[in-house]
Amino acid sequence: MREIDRVAVEEFGVSLLQMMENAGRNLARHVRESGPEPVVVLAGNGGNGGGGLCAARHLANRELDVSVVLDRSPDGLDGAARTQYETLATMGVRVDTGVDALVDREAETVVDALVGYGLDGPLRGIAGELVTEVDGLDTTVVSLDVPSGMVATTGERPGPSVDPDRVLTLALPKTGLSEIDCDLSLGDIAIPAGVYHSLDIPYSNPFEDEYRVDLTRMSET
Ligand SMILES: NC(=O)C1=CN([C@@H]2O[C@H](COP(=O)(O)OP(=O)(O)OC[C@H]3O[C@@H](n4cnc5c(N)ncnc54)[C@H](O)[C@@H]3O)[C@@H](O)[C@H]2O)[C@@H](O)CC1
Ligand SMILES: [K+]
């Protein structure tokens, strides 16, 4: 997936922010359909966090009760996540850091966008604390791409990890997701078929007229 993303950007000129916009809008739609308010988006500093922050913008645009809790101070954000954060800050969307903020918010839906396929070892620091806290909450949990703390390729959980009700995975299903039992759907982030073909990955577009498909239903039919 990392290679697919690289080829999409470097050889096909599809920018990370373009793909992230598709991820974030898809995620926001999924949350609007499946999760009650208030919505709290847990976001980290990578592509996964950026997708979550983008979804927060789409939810706020539709006037949902949404706020963000980061795993670090906003000063520690960079790249695309920083860009998404700056927009939210200008919009006046509430953004805080750490477990106390999550507890204060009394979320009915938690969007888990802390870490995706970039997980490196057991979940550490505030991200680990947030995940442990989510485990004790009675909320709907929607994970972006993979549950934070789970290794995307193997499904292993080397430390604290999210146990989601739903996962919206992006572009291709990650192999580790076969290890979990939850509602699983696939989101289109508009990667051209030629990207897959250039990497010798057999691919035909699974989305047809939709931008999100239910993988459970696909595997049954
Ligand atoms: N085409 C793309 O590249 C897109 C990627 N997106 C998402 O971006 C993800 C990949 O982005 P990245 O490569 O930036 O990686 P991630 O965002 O998955 O992870 C990197 C972040 O996680 C933190 N982290 C890693 N291991 C940790 C640990 N053990 N404890 C605590 N924090 C840890 C890092 O500090 C960093 O902030 C995908 O899973 C996908 O969800 C989407 O936003 C859409 C577009
Ligand atoms: K995640």
TrEMBL record:
Binds 1 potassium ion per subunit. PROSITE patterns: YJEF_N (PS51385). The keyword NADP applies. One of its GO terms (cellular component) is P-body. GO terms for molecular function: kinase activity; metal ion binding; mRNA binding; NAD(P)HX epimerase activity; nucleotide binding. Keywords: Isomerase, Kinase, Metal-binding, NAD, NADP, Nucleotide-binding, Potassium, Transferase. Its EC number is 5.1.99.6. Its cofactor is K(+). It comes from the Archaea. Belongs to the NnrE/AIBP family. Catalyzes the epimerization of the S- and R-forms of NAD(P)HX, a damaged form of NAD(P)H that is a result of enzymatic or heat-dependent hydration. This is a prerequisite for the S-specific NAD(P)H-hydrate dehydratase to allow the repair of both epimers of NAD(P)HX. HAMAP family: NADHX_epimerase. This is NAD(P)H-hydrate epimerase. It comes from Halosimplex carlsbadense 2-9-1. The gene is nnrE.
